[in-house]
Specification:
The two termini are 22 Å apart. 79% of the residues lie in helices and 0% in strands. The relative contact order is 0.15. It has one domain. Helix 4 packs antiparallel against helix 5. The protein has six helices and no strands. The longest helix has 35 residues. By secondary structure, it is mostly helical.
Length: 129
């Protein structure tokens, strides 16, 4: 599970970097979106929704990044909390792009009942040889 933990650590760093990028370039994105909504009936309302969406994405990115970092450390150390944290991180990973979807889907499969038995990840799994 060390490899999966390393991948979750890298993914957590990328999520936090993405949230930081939104904060850094928010003024530019506000100007770009503001130029698009000037001819709408209620541009101030749309700008308010845009700012709310931007804040939501920043909060989601930071929370998902922190959960992914904690899950990565838990997976690398092999503690008891590794499975629930990995499942929580995988649900957050499904909300973002191809890398998050791939990592989240694999983690969900690996820690599902059938997938955990196939890969031998569950400590209670009995293998017959």
């Amino acid at each position: 599970m060390k490899n999966l933990g390393i991948l979750w650590l890298l993914y957590g760093i990328l999520r936090i970097a993405g949230a930081a990028a939104i904060v850094i370039w928010s003024a530019t994105w506000t100007r770009m979106f503001g130029a698009l909504v000037t001819n709408t009936p209620n541009p101030l309302g749309m700008m308010s929704m845009f700012h709310a969406a931007m804040m939501f994405l920043v909060v989601l990115g930071v929370v998902a990044g922190i959960v992914a970092l904690i899950a990565g450390f838990a997976l690398m150390t092999g503690g008891d909390a590794a499975r629930p944290l990995a499942l929580l991180a995988s649900f957050f990973g499904l909300t973002n792009g191809p890398l998050g979807i791939a990592l989240g889907a694999f983690t969900l499969f690996a820690y599902s009942q059938r997938g955990a038995d196939n890969f031998g990840y569950r400590p209670s799994a009995v293998t017959s040889r």
